[in-house]
Specification:
Blueprint (H helix, E strand, L loop, with lengths): L1 H46 L6 E6 L4 H5 L6 E5 L2 E2 L7 H9 L5 E7 L2 E7 L12 E5 L3
Antiparallel strand pairs: 1-2, 1-6, 2-3, 2-4, 4-5
C-alpha cells in the first residue's frame, strides 16, 4: 500500500540522515587531529631552525640584493663566512662584501619560519653600495 511505502521511505531517509551525521562527525574529528599533528610538526621544525643574528630591513628594487631574492624581514643566519658564532658588528658584513665583490656569496635566511638559501653577488650598480639592502643586528 502507498502509506506503507511512504513510512518505509521516511525510516530509510532517517537512517541515511543519521549515517551522514556520523560520517561528517568522523571527518571533522579526523580533520582536527590532522591540524593538531601539522601544528606539532611545524613547532618541532621551528625549534631546529638556526639562530638569526641580523635582519634585512630594506631592499632597493633593481639592486643586487633585490635580484638575488633577498626580502625585507629576512632574518640572516649565515652571510658568507659570517654566522652567529663569529658576528660582532655590522663591519663583519662590510668586510665579507668587499672581499666578495663580483663573486657569489652564500646567504642563509629565515623567511616565514623556513630556512632559505640565497646566492648574492655583491657588485657595483646604479645605487649606493654593493648590495642595495640595509641590514640591522638583532637584539637578543
Amino acid at each position: 500500500s502507498p502509506a506503507g511505502l511512504q513510512n518505509d521511505h521516511k525510516a530509510l531517509m532517517k537512517q541515511v540522515e543519521e549515517a551522514l551525521h556520523q560520517l561528517h562527525a568522523r571527518e571533522k574529528e579526523k580533520h582536527a587531529k590532522d591540524e593538531v599533528e601539522a601544528l606539532a610538526e611545524a613547532m618541532s621544525q621551528n625549534q631546529s631552525l638556526p639562530q638569526a643574528f641580523a635582519k634585512v630591513n630594506a631592499v632597493t628594487p633593481g639592486s643586487p640584493a633585490s635580484l638575488s631574492g633577498l626580502q625585507v624581514d629576512d632574518e640572516i643566519v649565515e652571510f658568507g663566512s659570517v654566522n652567529i658564532n663569529n658576528f660582532q658588528n655590522l663591519q663583519n658584513f662590510a668586510t665579507v662584501v668587499q672581499h666578495s665583490e663580483g663573486r657569489p656569496l652564500s646567504v642563509t635566511v629565515i623567511r616565514s619560519g623556513k630556512k632559505v638559501h640565497v646566492g648574492l653577488t655583491p657588485k657595483r650598480w646604479a645605487g649606493k653600495g654593493l648590495l642595495g639592502c640595509n641590514i640591522i643586528p638583532l637584539q637578543r
